[in-house]
Amino acid sequence: MPDRLVVLYRGNRPPATALIERLADTVYATEEELPYLLPGADALLAWVTITPAIREAWPDTPEKAPRWVHASSAGVDSFLFPALVEDPGVTLTNARGVYDRPTAEYVLGLILALAKDFPGTWEHQQRREWRPRPSDGITGRTVLVWGTGPIGRAIARLLRAVGMRVCGAGRTARSGDPDFGTVHASATVPAALAEADYVVLAAPLTPDTRGMVDAPVLAAMKPGARLINVGRGGLVDEQALIDHLSAGRLAGAALDVFGQEPLPAGSPLWDMPGVMISPHTAGETTAEREALVEVFLDNLTRHVEGRPLRNVVDKRRGYVIHEESPA
Q1: CB 107 within 8 A of CB 115
Q2: Is the entire prediction scored with pTM above 0.70?
Q3: Which of the residues are catalytic?
Q4: Residue 14, phi then psi, degrees to nearest 5
Q5: 92-141 residue pLDDT tens
Q6: Are 8 and 35 in contact (CB under 8 A)?
Q7: In terms of C-beta density within 10 A (0-12 exposed, 13-18 middle, 19 or more buried), how is residue 51 classed?
Q8: How far apart are CA 108 and CA 118, in angstroms?
Q9: How distant is the alpha carbon of residue 130 from its chain centre?
Q10: Max alpha carbon distance in the chain (Å)?
Q11: Euclidean distance between CA atoms 311 and 326, whole angstroms
C-alpha cells in the first residue's frame, strides 16, 4: 500500500472513493491545500489537471516528491514542468483511452453543425423566421486530422465511416496507415492543408507543437476551409486565427480549447460569424467520471501489487508513446 495518496480535487471528489481508500492511505486536497499535503506523498491523483497548483506545490527536494503522478486527462501539458520531467524517479500516467470515442463523436457533431449551419437555423428559430436555404454535404469532403494519437485515430475512423476522405499529420510521414491512409510530416503538411475542407487539431501540447498553427499555416489552408480544435488552445496562434477569420479566408471554426480558459468575455471570437465556441467539453460525457476512476483504480491496483503501470507518459515528448499491454 502506498504510504500516502493525495487526491487533488476541485468541487466534487472522484467517485468510488471507498475503493480508492481501500487500496491507499488517502488524503484529499484542494488546490489551496496541496502545498501542505503533497510533500512526502507516495502518489498523486490529479482529479484536477488544468491548473498551475501542481507545479507551484511541487516539493523542492526530490525526496519529498511523489514517485507516481496520475493525470485524469489525456493531455498532460500542466505536468511538464522541469522538476517533474527531469526527475527520473517520477512516473507520470494519464487517462489515455477514456476520451477517444467521445471526442470523435463531438468532432463529427461539429462538422455537421458547421456544414449544415445549425447555429444559423437556431438563430432563425429564435426570431421565428422561416428561411429555407441549402447546406453543405460532408460525404467526400477532405479532412486533415493533425495528431495521430488514439484520439486522432478515433476521429479518423468515425469520419471515414460517414464517407469523408481522411488523412493525418504527425511526426513521421507514412502511407498505408489503417486509419489515416496517408500521414504527412512537416514537409508535406502545406500541400495537405491546401486540399483539406476541414482541419482537425487533436495533437498534444508540447514544446514542438505549441503555436504550430500560426499565420503561415493558416495562409496555407484551402480558402473556405474550417478549423476545428479539440486538442489544446496553445496549438493555435489565436490572433492569427482571428485575423484570417476576419479577412474571410476561412469559412469558420469550431473551438473547444483556448490559450486562456475560460475564454475572456472580450475575445472577438465570441461574436465572429461561423465560429462555434465550447468550454473545453469535447471529450466529456455523463459517464466520464466513472471511466476516469476505473482507469486510475486499475493503475492503483498495479502500483500496490508492484506490476507495470498502464499509460506511462514519455515526459520528454509529453504523451504515451505506444499502446501498452502490461501484465
Answers
A1: no
A2: yes
A3: 232, 261, 280
A4: -65, 155
A5: 999 999 999 999 999 999 999 999 999 999 999 999 999 999 999 999 99
A6: no
A7: middle
A8: 13
A9: 38
A10: 68
A11: 10
